[in-house]
Specification:
Strands 3, 4, 5, 8, 9, 16 and 17 form a 7-stranded mixed beta sheet that branches. This protein has a 6-stranded parallel beta sheet with strand order 12-11-10-13-14-15. Strands 1-2 form a two-stranded antiparallel sheet. The longest helix is centred in the C-terminal third of the chain and has 14 residues. The mean pLDDT is about 95. By secondary structure, the chain is of the alpha/beta class. The protein contains 10 helices and 17 strands. Helix content is about 20%, strand content about 25%.
Length: about 350
């Protein structure tokens, strides 16, 4: 077995502590990577603090992983020692269902395995990226272009693909009017991707606090809730990153004919809409998760080509508890990233 230091929580209100964990030996199709950075996603907080109600303790969160390959299995062909690589939300899937065969592993119908807080094929709970190293099957390891710094690339493994998939699928591009609802950890990456795709990109936010940042990242326009009434029928596509409940119908009214509203957030309350909000203009309300491995690699290559990266605040292992509290309050611009070299520090 391979050992590694990791940061773990033993209960929903317990602080993070450092422990030694075991990783499996490198199999024929496996890749062992030294984790350099791990993004801190809001989903990490939900799982670690049992807000989703199905946490396996002790938990080692982290599914935005960037590192360097240390060792490869005898049958690995697509990855070499020394490569910069990333691992996102998944470390396995059934590989046999129609979704897996189509390269859409995040929609696996036979049992996908999340990077942490899930049960792997070996029956053990998966342990995530807040650790020094990790072993994963080659299929779930993506190349990070050399043009992307690892600390800025780590959040792309979740936030990046979560924004890239709906923007590409629902046609962000030249001549399209795209709204990004919420300018935070996902939204600031989504603006960059939408801008690079050639769409006219508008940020929709509560107030003006983040206008300068949005414009710096490529937003063509920035509107607040005070502008809602004047924006009716203005967009072809809106991607919502907002995790809390809000007036969904008011934002659906911003869509033009055949416009699409993509919901990425998971509010605690069920989504509510007025029926005519979708009947009018033949609008579409859809959802999207992260994305499969082929598209994740495509996203990384696209980001590398266009210089798209997360704006991050690098933190030490001892700052994780504070970072969780700050993230819950929205006090980060725009993504925390854990420096795993600090995990073993006294």
């Amino acid at each position: 077995m391979i050992t590694a230091q990791a940061r773990t929580m033993t209960g929903p209100t317990e602080p993070f502590t450092t422990v030694t964990i075991e990783r499996r030996d490198v199999g024929p199709t496996d890749v062992l990577l030294d984790i350099v950075y791990a993004g801190v996603c809001h989903t990490d907080v939900h799982h670690a603090r049992a807000e989703f109600g199905h946490t396996h303790y002790p938990i080692v969160p982290g599914h935005e992983i960037a590192g360097i390959v240390r060792e490869i299995g005898t049958e690995v062909t697509g990855v070499a020692v020394g490569d910069h690589v990333g691992i996102g939300c998944l470390v396995d899937s059934c590989r046999e269902c129609a979704m897996c065969q189509a390269g859409q592993e995040s929609y696996c119908r036979g049992g996908k395995v999340l990077t942490y807080n899930a049960i792997g094929r070996d029956g053990q709970v998966t342990l995530g990226g807040y650790s020094e190293r990790l072993v994963a099957d080659e299929r779930f390891v993506a190349h990070i272009p050399d043009t992307l710094p690892l600390e800025s690339a780590a959040p792309l493994m979740c936030a990046g693909i979560t924004m890239y998939q709906p923007l590409k699928l629902w046609g962000a591009g030249p001549g399209k009017r795209v709204g990004i609802l919420g300018f935070g950890g996902l939204g600031h990456i989504g603006v960059q991707i939408s801008h690079a795709m050639g769409a006219h990109t508008t940020v929709l936010e509560l107030n003006d606090d983040r206008r300068a940042d949005a414009e710096r990242f490529g937003a063509d326009d920035y509107r607040t809730t005070d502008d809602i009434a004047a924006l009716r029928d203005s967009f072809d596509l809106i991607v919502s990153t907002v995790p809390s409940s809000y007036d969904l119908s008011a934002h659906l009214d911003l869509l033009d004919f055949d416009g699409t509203f993509v919901n990425l957030g998971v509010p605690k309350e069920p989504l509510r809409i007025e029926p005519y909000a979708i009947l009018t203009n033949r609008r579409k309300l859809v959802g999207s998760m992260s994305g499969g491995m082929p598209e994740t690699q495509e996203m990384l290559d696209f980001c590398g080509e266009h210089g798209i990266a997360a704006q991050v605040e690098v933190i030490s292992a001892k700052e994780l508890d504070e970072a969780y509290d700050r993230l819950t309050k929205g006090d980060v611009r725009y993504r925390f990233v854990l420096d795993t070299a600090t995990i073993a520090a006294p």
